[in-house]
Here is the input.
Amino acid sequence: MKWGCPCYTWQGNNIVLIHTFKEYCAFLFFKGTLLDDSHGILIQQTENVQSARQIRLTNINEIVEQESTLKAYIYEAIEVEKAGLKVEFKKTDEFKMPDEFRYKLDRIPALKAAFEALTPGRQKGYLLYFSQAKQSKTREARVEKYLPQILDGKGLDD
Here is the structure.
């Protein structure tokens, strides 16, 4: 069990997680982008998910009907892990830097140093969160709110 869901591993590496939502259950393949989706059933949950892909199922009949397909995807995911294949993740500098945050970084050297000292995951978290706001005013407010946390070397959810 991981994250409250059944998680299947191979030699300590996560392969597939089965999780439930109100509308569906899903088989989440951690390295789904590396699978050959010959049936066209893998779904990217959100635009920011780089590696994982889901197969969504809405009723028991779908599970029964797709049993052999699900098994084939699971076996392929195990083979991907056995082969040691790695997903190429976007680098932090490939994420959009909101102008409001760039402005602060350019004017506060301590903030720039603190941000660059954060782990890539924490940097990405801030960039995604700041960029999600549609209005400049909201982006500015988000940046202002999290300046102390960045300066303290903490991530968005620390």
